[in-house]
Amino acid sequence: MTHEKSGPRTLSGWGRTIRRTCEVRRPTFDGGLVDLVTAEPRLTVRGAGKSYGDAALPGSGGPGVVLELTEFDRIVSFDEGNGVVVVEAGALLKDLIDQTLPIGWKLPVVPGTERITVGGAIACDVHGKNHPGAGSFGQHVVWLALLRSDGTIVQLSAGQDPDGFWATIGGMGLTGVILRAAIQLQRVDTGWMIRNRRRTRSLDETLDAMRAAAGRQELDPERYAIAWLDARGSAPGRGIVDEYYGAGTLDLPGAVAPFPETRPPSARYRRSLPGRGVVSNTTIAAASAARWHLSRSANSQLVAMRDALCPLDRADAWPAAFGRGGLVQYQFAVPADEIGTIHEVLSYLGRHGLPPALATLKNLGFGTAGALSFPIPGWTLAVDLPARRLGTLRPLDKLVAGAGGRVYLAKDAVTDPELIPLMYPRLPTWRRTQRRLDPAGRWTSGLAERLGLLS
Ligand SMILES: Cc1cc2nc3c(=O)[nH]c(=O)nc-3n(C[C@H](O)[C@H](O)[C@H](O)COP(=O)(O)OP(=O)(O)OC[C@H]3O[C@@H](n4cnc5c(N)ncnc54)[C@H](O)[C@@H]3O)c2cc1C
């Protein structure tokens, strides 16, 4: 066996709340991937490690072996006739976009960061700001190749073992290793977007603006919307609602090239600040108020597509700012008529002295998705909080589950395991397919163990 054995390393997710020391293996296909998979009794698959909690970490029971797919990063083929790209699962969305956007093709779904792998995007079935019209990432996967725990490789698609396909999409790396996938890209005229920005004065006004945006989004997969909420201000829920749509060549001033040259800078790892970092109720209040006051409602602003879709890629230092304890992002979805839950969650956080350092609201729509995929039609609110008071979040799980909602597994570090079957009612069906695809029972993760996903 020639796979690289790089010894013990301490890993965490993007939130830096949960840390595990583990053996990290980075095999190549010819260099022992299948041997490794069939030799190790328990394995955790990891992409770029951008899930917030422990989805890409081993469980707490032992040292654990992590399979990092970073050697699998090639674009295998691209058909410029029909826009289907075949790509290895360890490739970053960023690299795919670097290669295809300048020639007029874009990924139909991009989450808030491009620095994730294709495998991670499929395993978490990620969504973007255009979910009501475009659905989630998995809906644009034409087929995928999965390495199962018995060493066999199967090709899955909506027509070829659909149960296995939809159990792997959103399946949190627990059905096998996604080796490569074919993804349907979409044609674009430019790499620019038009932004219409509205500053709102209350949560009700923010929700009304987002509801109106959802109507437009349902009719058009190219419509993106996101609201930033000042959850701490004198009027909680006032915010900034940004709606984007693709710019055509006629929208560009003469001197502007159709595809911007600028690319997001490369990621840098920043060490966590000592102690509690710089995020406190005082700094949150000041930063939120400044952001709101400095923004103005304005229409028809030209913004580079990548800046519009992935603003946090310019903020490498974000998790480091929360200090040694790290940050938790509590993201949940509730049905469209459960607006009361959004109000209640924000007021609960306010009452308990937990103002979010960042709070964003997006619309979610219909669409076929995996049993463990996160999106349901309605709203999704994501709040970034210092991790030091995790226990305070527990009552929110009941509120969300009671409203027919769910937390996002890719972000989770805190959820009450007893509520998972309520939040994900198709879990028993998923487990049956998971067992079929993982006959040796090898795949595991901190998340799977903590929430009892496999039992
Ligand atoms: C700044 C930021 C913004 C974000 N915004 C959004 C957003 O808008 N929408 C959204 O949906 N998500 C968002 N996310 C979450 C992120 O998109 C997901 O967590 C994504 O899965 C991370 O991909 P990764 O390559 O880092 O995977 P990892 O974090 O390494 O792994 C995530 C899961 O995928 C599994 N996995 C990874 N690779 C494979 C593979 N090859 N085969 C099988 N399983 C695999 C792992 O086992 C794990 O369960 C955001 C994250 C960050 C840090």
Description of the structure:
- The protein is α+β, with helices and mostly antiparallel strands and 455 residues long.
- The protein has two domains: 75-187, Uridine Diphospho-n-acetylenolpyruvylglucosamine Reductase, domain 3; 192-259 and 269-414, 3-Layer(aba) Sandwich (Vanillyl-alcohol Oxidase, Chain A, domain 3), CATH 3.40.462.
- It contains 13 helices and 19 strands.
- The strands form four sheets. The chain has an eight-stranded antiparallel beta sheet. Strands 5-6-10-8-9 form a five-stranded antiparallel beta sheet.
- The longest helix has 17 residues, at 203-219.
- It is globular and about 60 Å long.
- The mean pLDDT is 93.
- The structure holds flavin-adenine dinucleotide.
Give the helix/strand class. Answer: alpha+beta
| Overall morphology | globular
Strand tally is: 19
* Cofactors and ligands: flavin-adenine dinucleotide
In the predicted model, the low-confidence regions spanning at least 5 consecutive residues are: none
Task: Tell me the β content.
Answer: 25-35%
| Tally of discrete structural domains | 2
Strand order of the largest sheet: 15-12-14-13-17-18-16-19
What is the terminal separation in angstroms?
Answer: 33 Å
Instruction: Quickly name the level 1 CATH class of the largest domain.
Output: Alpha Beta
Averaged pLDDT? 93
Number of H- or I-type helical stretches: 13
CATH topology of the largest domain: Vanillyl-alcohol Oxidase, Chain A, domain 3
What level of helicity do the residues show? Answer: 10-25%
